[in-house]
Amino acid sequence: MSSAFREAVIDLAAVQANVAHLRSLIGTRHTMAVVKANGYGHGAAPVARAALAGGADWLGVADLDEALALRAAGIDAPLLAWLHGPDTDFAAGIAADIDLGLSSAAQVRQAAGAALSVGRTASVQIKIETGLNRNGVDEADWAEVFGLAAAFERVGRLRVRGVFSHLANTSPADDESALLSFDRGLEAAATAGLTLDLAHLASTAAALRLPAARHTMVRLGIGIYGQSPFDDADSAALGLIPAMTLRGRVAAVRQVAAGAGVSYDYLWRAATDTTLALVPLGYADGVPRQAMNAAFVAINGVRHPVVGRIAMDQFLVDVGAVPVAVGDDVVLFGDPSTGAPSAAEWGAAAGTINYDIVTRVGSRVPRRYVGAPAKSAGE
Ligand SMILES: *Cc1c(COP(=O)(O)O)cnc(C)c1O
């Protein structure tokens, strides 16, 4: 146990093992580790290194700034960024050897112009719309956009390395229709004269349960962090190890009498005389305020309920008659095989999902890394 008052312990050996395990199940030629949003709250660069050590050969992020930060951290593995604003500086991405995910004819032109200014060929991957209705080129525009990209490729401004899309994970029928749409997109790319190295559609859920979606690469996010994307299978059922443990130490202990109100607005009152433990994490640290009177923590390995309003910096736990002292170990969530509540349980308590629970852990919570790969990869 560490003495930290509040911290997120990140087990990089778990990330490495999760990637290796997922790769053995999925078996695609390429594996992208998705490390957007600060590696789902775990820390993008350390997670990227662990994922590469586990066998990932691509990294994916949303914003170009996230990609540039990985390059600045010394990571030179293949890297794709796919969500851009109108003023995104593609030239900086091209100079840093970052693949640009492009979603429109305007972005294809913008990338080709930036490539000219940098004096290099831009490596790009075209995102196509197959049902999710976020970004991505509409089917009606595939011929135009692929034709434009092929023309820039012929003059050395672009290399169109791949075509990709993203699933809605709504129902087997909806996913099937997206898969068919993706196949039509690949045909349209071939018709335009493009020769692709990469075709990718599946994130963790489809990579595991929809083999037809795997193509040449899968993009694994939540699974590499040891969390399940499914309601009907937990981490252990998938052979995954949760990488993040959010923990702290009891900051105060107080005996209260039956009827005592607890925390703002007295939304919980002690039914009997009891003991309360104060935990020094709050919504500023990403603890969801909505989980009041529903979530559990483990103190010295024993589960106790969170009671009353979760405040900005702290919340209370009813420990009943169990002896608890200031400084005792509190785990909000971690690996359930250790007796800790899971991030998914906190998600259920707060009306959200495990993705949100781990990603929202705030910047005030120091990340402490354990199990770093012996030999750093991708740098
Ligand atoms: C976030 C994201 C992923 C990863 O999804 P998981 O469900 O976390 O595996 C893959 N692809 C795209 C485009 C994403 O935005």
UniProtKB/TrEMBL annotation:
Q: Where is the Alanine racemase C-terminal domain?
A: 243-370
Q: Which reaction does it catalyse?
A: L-alanine = D-alanine
Protein EC: 5.1.1.1
Q: Which cofactor does it need?
A: pyridoxal 5'-phosphate
Q: What class of enzyme is it?
A: isomerase
Instruction: Quote the record's binding site residues for substrate.
Output: R134, M312
Q: Where is the active site?
A: K36, Y264
Keyword field: Isomerase, Pyridoxal phosphate
Asked if the Swiss-Prot or TrEMBL record annotates the protein with the keyword Oxidoreductase, the reply is no
The cellular component terms of Gene Ontology attached to this UniProt record, alphabetical and capped at eight, are: cytosol
The modified positions for N6-(pyridoxal phosphate)lysine read: K36
Annotated GO biological process? D-alanine biosynthetic process; peptidoglycan biosynthetic process
- GO MF terms held by the record: alanine racemase activity; pyridoxal phosphate binding
- Which CDD domains does UniProt cross-reference here? PLPDE_III_AR (cd00430)
* Recorded metabolic or biological pathway in which this protein acts: Amino-acid biosynthesis; D-alanine biosynthesis; D-alanine from L-alanine: step 1/1
Q: What family, per the record?
A: Belongs to the alanine racemase family.
Q: Which NCBIfam families match?
A: alr (TIGR00492)
- Described function: Catalyzes the interconversion of L-alanine and D-alanine. May also act on other amino acids.
According to UniProt, the name of this protein is Alanine racemase
